[in-house]
Amino acid sequence: MTRPEGPPEDLPFRRPTSIPLPSKAHLRTYAEIDGGYTDCYAVDIEAELPLSDYVTGFYTTWLFRLERLVLHLIAFRPSSDRQIRDFAEGTSDGFAAWAVEARMEDQLLVRDISGRTRSWFMIKARSLDNAGTTPTTRLYFGSAVVPRRNKKTNEPELGPVFGFLLGFHKCYSRALLSAAAARLRHKLPILGSNS
Fold first, then answer.
1. How does pLDDT run across 33-82, given as a tens digit for each residue?
2. Side-chain half-sphere exposure of 23, counting CA atoms within 13 A
3. Rg from Cα positions in the chain
């Protein structure tokens, strides 16, 4: 699926905004696969932070904790905040249902255990004012769904389940990024004491 042109890159994004993938995004490889799906959302926060804080903040939000609980109860794949922090800092290459596919200082691309989906995180330092006195970090979050071959037509397709859940996925992606940004803006503790 081709992504539509989004708002100008230089505007501040106060809320998660759908934008085209940046040219250097690790997720771009999947955007070029016929029959697949990719998306990209971005939001700005007035703080300087490393990728590890963003990834930890994302996976430890109240909203993602619900997904972690489901994975624990249904797929028997528990995870702790400490495992997530290690994963985000690069001392671990996986947690629960995710494994690192590519990692750079400003990007992280992970795949799920099925190999069908990818999640991508990127940060970009910027300033929201002309004087450069307000340090800001743009948080990017994107997803990819890798198509499978239709057994009858041999054409690449997402399949009925992914196709059916696509609308929900878009809302959920924005909500996850919004929750991560709120957590980081309010400087809530990243790590829980017992998780």
1. 999 999 999 999 988 899 999 999 999 999 999 999 999 999 899 899 99
2. 1
3. 17
Class at the top of the CATH hierarchy for domain 17-185 = alpha beta
Residue located via tokens 């009858």 = 152
- What is the DSSP pairing of strand 37-45 with strand 135-145? antiparallel
> DSSP labels for 114-176?
TSSEEEEEEEEEEESSTTS-SEEEEEEEEEEE--EE-TTT--EE--HHHHHHHHHHHHHHHHH
Cα 87 to Cα 18: distance, rounded to the nearest angstrom? 26
pTM for the full model? 0.87
Q: Please, are residues 140 and 23 in contact by the beta-carbon 8 Å criterion?
A: no
Domain boundaries, the chain: 17-185
